[in-house]
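Batch manifest line 450
LIGAND: zinc ion
JOB: complex structure
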Amino acid sequence: MLRLSREGGLAHFPGLARPRCVHCTGCSEEQLGELQSLLLALPGASVAEAGNDRRRFCVALVGEGGEVLWSQVVAEESAPQALLAWWRRAEIAPLQKKTDGQA
Amino acid sequence: MTASNLPMARPFLPPYLLERVATGGSARLRECARHTLLVDSRFRARAGAVTLPPGSERRGEPARYVHSAEQQQVLPGKLVRREGQGESGDSAIDEAYHGLGATYRLFWEVYRRHSLDDQGMALLATVHYGKEYENAFWDGNQMVFGDGDGELFNRFTIAVDIIAHELTHGVIQHEAALEYAYQAGALNESLSDVFGTLVKQYQGEQRVEQADWLVGEGLFTDRVAGRALRSMAEPGTAYDDPLLGSDPQPGHMNDLVETHEDNGGVHINSGIPNRAFHLAAMALGGHAWERAGWVWYDTLVDQRLGRNSDFATFAGLTQDNAARRFGATSEVAEAVLAAWRTVGVLP
Ligand SMILES: [Zn+2]
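JOB STATUS: finished
ARTIFACT:
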């Protein structure tokens, strides 16, 4: 499972910072391919950004038992558009079991 | 969707690949990392070399520059209003311009500080940042404001205390440079809220009992069940909304939130020092910027306030500064001590 959360910003809103999940078992081959490329190409480990009240994305791969297998923090400005798209989609509806879908 | 162009026919992250993602061990990853480092160093080079436009050489006069990103995520964007120019007719631009002016005025007229660095540094703001962007931030050189999504948030220039909050981050950067994590970060946030509300109160010539002691009142649309981002008087009561969740701020050390989220709870635990300021100001009455404000300002510029200061260190310094400016047995010194005791920071 891929867990995405956007946190930080001018205030901490627990509702908005709540992690969103993409269940890999419900993704098509194409979608998995896209996710994999996305993770591999994510900007490097968290850099202490200058400034205050900035937002960032926390990306984590979570195992069946809820254990974090891998995680990374990406500054909002350097987050790829595709990551934002996944984050938005994960919000609208937790991914349903589908064999095909638009990546 | 550029990432989808990369051909990937392997199954989704088998263990060996996962390990590589985790350790950055593969050649491809190293390439990515190197690329990222390059990009980062370019960013940093740019950030370091940002040449701010001319500041103000005349103490008492600001040098304001308002830009528009025109819904892009570029900084600083196009210059749309500079010092002395008239109204643009665009609310975000004009609110930013006046908010910069109001912030400059408090720091100058009350504390004799000539802009963020006390050297007349140019005040830069960018409005219309991004599309429906729901945030405002300080990037280390300037302030940035989104238009809000219209669903939950209005444009972020609507609240003068938010403009002042962002600028105060700039003042802190030039003084104690409080680290942006855990208690030091919460102090950084709290100082920004304190001077944010003081700018609003000074502009409205409000006495302590007339002030709303809210942070970001007006930012929420009517659809949100909430008054503001934070309440300094009653931390934890600013909003309780199905989408935003419930205001997580504590108002006492017993309820200090230990978390790794939000840089270690910088926007959460700031409720405690915020409430201490409110209590001190209310006990003293009158105009908050005159006495409580001076004590907090003296502490903000105090050389002894280190980057990693915690609440107790900060509280001790406010006590000392209250005694220095107003006398050890003064009403001010007493009010400050009582405030920190009430929130459980001092015994
Ligand atoms: Zn802030």
